[in-house]
Amino acid sequence: MLNNKKILIGITGGIAAYKILILISKLIKQNCQIKVIMTKNAEKFITKLAVQTISQNKVYTDMFATDDFEIDHIALADWADLMIVAPATANIIGKFANGIADDLLSTTFLSFSSSKKIFIAPAMNSKMYENFIVRKNIEKLKESNKNLNIIAPDEGILACGAKGIGRLPEPEIILEYIDNFLYFDNLPLKGKKIVITAGPTREYIDPVRYISNDSSGAQGYAIANACAGAGADVILISGKVSNSIALINTIKKIDVIDSAEMFEAVKNNFKNSDIFISCAAVADYKPLDYSANKLKKDNDDLMLRLTKTQDILEWCGKNKKKQIIVGFAAETENLIENAKLKMQKKNCDLLIANSTENIGKSTNKIFVLSKDNIQEFSETAKQETAKIIVSAILKKINEYTN
Ligand code: C5P
Predict the structure, then answer these.
(1) Looking at the structure, do residues 56 and 179 belong to the same domain, yes or no?
(2) What is the pTM of this model?
(3) Which of 77, 157, 278, 294 could be stapled to 111 by a disulfide with Cβ–Cβ 3.0 to 4.6 Å?
(4) Is residue 219 part of a domain?
């Protein structure tokens, strides 16, 4: 969605300003044209030269520059397709919310058409972020225009060493948020509660050994991000995956290790959900006996007895009331036949069939099965596959409500 867009970026004076260099570099790689306005305080944290070099464009700082004839705040606002202000300090948020225009960024914000999207990513110390005036200003901005979006800050260790809310999300999260938000215009899943399982389970044999699989969690996380971008309340129940997978911070994540924990978490959240997406690669079998002590290699052979795990998706299919259920099938052979059988057996509304070859990869190639239809899609990044899946869910919602 961001490809070839003209993006105006406002950088204000916060320590997180350095992250915007990475954001700009990623946008340039997507063929975006970037123009940047830096406030005076932003220049205390990163240099104009660095931003100019990375954005491949002139950087604007001065309200009264005399080096050309254009009126910068009008020309910049007219030029851009969308605007991102990150990091946004309490000061600039206060100015935006109250119509104060005393520098180039605040003046350009007021000149920016209300029909174009604006993304504002607050980042500051948690005490400032939680201050009632800052909260009020953020609420005022949210209500002022449906095209203005606040990208909520993350929790974590802040620059001052304190722990709390106020960190600027990582650049890839900001991009994934904006990309999904632009794709699913008008928040079509607003008010919907979605439970998603993702990643592998680990079925422990002894304290250090387990049975698992190569699932990276990337597809499930991308679906969670797409659902959040479409406005849903998302609960992601995740097996152990790499910490580096980008996840939008409005998503509630429940970490689990084995299939029993995953089942418990699903049971606790299924009843209140509208949609259940079973993307996790849940182990089908687990060791019958768990050894509390590390197994010794006393014999040449070791017999491991396995027993079936609970089929979580099947349980959801049996217990569904209003829920739309989306299952997955990864197969090495007879993909479509097996997927059809699974859809029936587990009472799914949609089934996403993919070859096992894409497990652990960054791309996926899927077939979307519903009761009377099969659609094939070409191989694409898992973020794009997530959009296809969420679009299929939206179609199902429409089908059931009309
Ligand atoms: O039967 P199979 O394991 O191939 O089915 C895959 C689908 O079932 C996936 O959606 C997976 O998340 C789900 N599943 C489950 N619980 C299991 C095994 C699979 O929810 N124990």
Answers:
(1) yes
(2) 0.92
(3) 77
(4) yes
For residue 328 and ligand 1, the question of a CB distance below 6 A is answered with: yes
What mean pLDDT comes out for the span 33-40? 98
**pLDDT tens per residue across span 321-371:** 999 999 999 999 999 999 999 999 999 999 999 988 888 889 999 999 999
- 316 neighbors 323 (Cβ within 8 angstroms): yes
311 lines ligand 1 (CB under 6 A): yes
CATH number at residue 289: 3.40.50.10300
The alpha carbon of 378 and the centre of ligand 1 are apart by a number of angstroms equal to: 23
Is 160 in the active site? yes
Whether residue 36 is found in the same domain as residue 138 = yes
Ligand 1 neighbour 263 (Cβ under 6 A): no
The pLDDT score that the predictor gives to residue 69 is: 67
Categorise residue 250: left if φ over 0, alpha if ψ from -120 to 50, beta otherwise. Answer: alpha
Distance CA 166, CA 129 (A): 6
The CATH number covering residue 74 comes to 3.40.50.1950
Residue 188 lies in a domain: no
Q: How many domains does the chain have?
A: 2
- 115 and 197 in a common domain: no
Query: Nearest Cα to 353, choosing from 383, 378, 331?
Result: 331
> Length of the chain in residues, anyone?
402
Q: Indicate if 216 and 300 belong to the same structural domain.
A: yes
Q: Is 201 in the pocket of ligand 1 (CB under 6 A)?
A: no
Mean of the per-residue pLDDT values for the chain?
95
Q: Is the pLDDT of residue 144 over 90?
A: yes
To which residue do tokens 């999260």 refer? 173
Q: Kindly report the protein residue whose alpha carbon is nearest to atom 16 of ligand 1.
A: 311
> CB of 265 closer than 6 A to ligand 1?
no
Q: Whose C-alpha lies nearest to ligand 1, atom 21?
A: 311
- Tell me, yes or no, whether 348 lies in a domain: yes
In DSSP terms, 330 is beta-bridged to 354
The Cα 66–Cα 77 span in angstroms is: 18
**Cα end-to-end distance, the chain, whole Å:** 29
Structural domain contains residue 46? yes
- Shared domain for 254 and 316, answered yes or no, is yes
Ligand 1 atom at minimum distance from 330 CA: 4
Final residue in a domain of this structure, among 183, 212, 243: 183
* Residue of 215, 278, 307 best suited for mutating to test ligand 1, as the one with most atoms within 8 Å of CB: 278
Domain that holds residue 52: 6-183
What pLDDT score was predicted for residue 247? Answer: 92
